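Posting this for the archive.
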Amino acid sequence: MRAIRAACDVLINPTLGANTIPDPQRRVAIIPELARDSATRPDLAPVDLASINVDPWDPQTRRFLAEDLVYATSVAGLREIIGTIRAAGVLPQAVLWNIGSARLLEAFVEMGVLAAPVCAQAIVSDALLSTHQASVRGLTALLDFMPRARVFCTIGNGGGNLLPLVTAALERGAHVAIGLGDYAYPELGTPTNADLVREVARIARGCGRDLATPAEVRELLHIA
């Protein structure tokens, strides 16, 4: 994180312990630790607003790659995680896996657990059956249940190619979260993350969408 900050001004959003760490405080413990030093304080931290089966499906072999993994996140645990992130001076990013996640996000906004403008990421996937399908239909169904509050929502594709959905996401007012951590993009050869960002930027300009600088994103999300 120090090396990233020394090289550029991108926003930093580390991961948390997921289904491997059931205790909410242990799951989020890295955030206040990082936040003690301004050089390593994250800008964002993700909070998965769902309890789901982790059910990767292989349509070629017609088999599940895992059948006994469950990602459990109670409402009380989520409130604890969000409170810890906010107390550390970091912005929570609500990660939405299905319509239930979007409805929970709206409840958290109404309760004041999360404040507008809300930072969210909506995940679609063909690899995980617990999520919405990675299609325009699946994406639209999820976005239809976004809270009425102002939501700065990016779209990601877990384990699949997001590029076919970029135009649909942009046309619906969403933003794009793309990277090799989700999918290797062999269709493009051996791209770098920078190559993927350039391709999304090209599509966005073709749709008439302006590109935001990191400083503009911080201003939009009220990140100091």
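Residues 48 and 95 are 5 Å apart (CA to CA). The two ends are 17 Å apart (CA to CA).
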